[in-house]
Amino acid sequence: MTENATRDHFFPAMRAEELIGMILGDSDPRNPNVSPLFASFPNCPPVLLQASDCEILRDDSIRMADHLRHEGAEVRLSVTQGAPHVWQMFDGLFPEARQAIEETGQFIEALN
């Protein structure tokens, strides 16, 4: 969150504590129902994670990939350069969106 604090335009790091408080309330942030980083994934199917190199959630994606691998899952972590948070929603506006959608389709097809 520190490295990309001024680079992520959709999810401002300066509001992280406020957003965390809105989501968590009095809940324990290590509750697996709140954060998959603390959940168990027995017999997990293959997973594709996509993150942007400049979003504040990039490192959470890396941590999640590591956690899933530790759980025995096959994980593909794809990091896109310069894309905004949730860039996949902007198909037709960002070429990276189409690339991410195609990557997802290829990942799913490879499972069959």
Q: Name the beta content range.
A: 5-15%
Radius of gyration: 15 Å
Structurally, how many domains make up the residues?
1
Tally of separate helices? 3
Question: For the report, how would you describe the main beta sheet?
Answer: 2 strands, parallel
Protein name: Alpha/beta hydrolase family protein
Domain Alpha/beta hydrolase fold-3: 5-88
InterPro entries: AB_hydrolase_3, AB_hydrolase_fold, GDXG_lipolytic_enzyme
Pfam families: Abhydrolase_3
Describe the structure.
Strand 1 (47-52), helix 2 (58-70) and strand 2 form a beta-alpha-beta unit. 35% of the residues lie in helices and 11% in strands. The chain has helices at residues 16-24, 58-70, 95-111; strands at 47-52, 75-80. With 112 residues, it is of the alpha+beta class. The protein has one domain. The termini are far apart. It has a two-stranded parallel sheet with strand order 1-2. The mean pLDDT is 89. It comes from Celeribacter persicus. This is Alpha/beta hydrolase family protein. InterPro entries: AB_hydrolase_3, AB_hydrolase_fold, GDXG_lipolytic_enzyme.
